[in-house]
Write a structure and sequence with these properties.
Elements (H helix, E strand, L loop, with lengths): L8 H22 L3 H16 L7 E5 L7 E4 L4 E5 L7 H16 L5 H7 L5 H16 L10
Parallel strand pairs: 1-3
Antiparallel strand pairs: 2-3
Helix pairs in contact: 2-3, 3-5
Length: 147
C-alpha cells in the first residue's frame, strides 16, 4: 500500500485500518454469506455430530473482537466473528464445530472437549488462532515508506 509521506504515523495507522476494513468487507462477499455458512454448519453437524446439533441461525457478526464465535443454545443461534473471513477453511470449520458442540453441551467441560475430538484439525486450528492472537499483540513496526 502506498501512503503519502506527509501523513503522520497516527494518520497512517488509521488509514491502513480503514483500507483493511474495506478489503475485508469485499473479501467477505466472496467468501461465505450467512446462508452458505448455515449450510456449512449443517454439513459439519451431520459429519461430526450425527446431525444432532441443529442451529436455527448461523451468521457473521462484526461486534465480536475478542471472541471468534459465540453460541446461544436457548435460541439455537451461532455467530462467527467477521475476523475469521479469509482464514483457512479448516479454521472456520473448527470454530463452527466448536459452536455446534455448545448446542449439545454448554460450557467447556470434559464432555465438550470429547465432542471436539471428532474434528481432526482441532489442534491445528487452535494453534492457528493462537498465532493470530499472538501476532496482534506484537508491536507493529512502521513499514518503510512506499511499501
Amino acid at each position: 500500500m502506498l501512503i503519502p509521506a506527509r501523513m503522520s504515523e497516527a494518520e497512517e495507522q488509521r488509514w491502513v485500518g480503514v483500507m483493511l476494513d474495506k478489503l475485508a468487507a469485499q473479501e467477505s462477499k466472496r467468501i461465505l454469506g450467512d446462508e452458505e455458512l448455515t449450510e456449512r454448519a449443517e454439513r459439519l453437524s451431520a459429519q461430526y455430530f450425527e446431525g444432532r446439533a441443529r442451529p436455527d441461525s448461523v451468521r457473521w457478526v462484526t461486534n465480536q473482537n475478542t471472541r471468534w464465535g459465540s453460541c446461544t443454545p436457548a435460541e439455537g443461534s451461532i455467530r462467527l466473528s467477521h475476523r475469521l473471513q479469509g482464514m483457512p477453511e479448516y479454521v472456520v470449520d473448527y470454530v463452527l464445530v466448536h459452536e455446534l458442540a455448545h448446542l449439545l453441551v454448554p460450557g467447556h467441560g470434559p464432555r465438550f472437549w470429547e465432542l471436539l475430538e471428532a474434528y481432526p484439525r482441532t489442534e491445528r486450528a487452535r494453534g492457528y488462532l493462537e498465532g493470530v492472537v499472538a501476532a496482534d499483540r506484537l508491536p507493529h513496526l512502521p513499514a518503510a515508506r512506499g511499501e
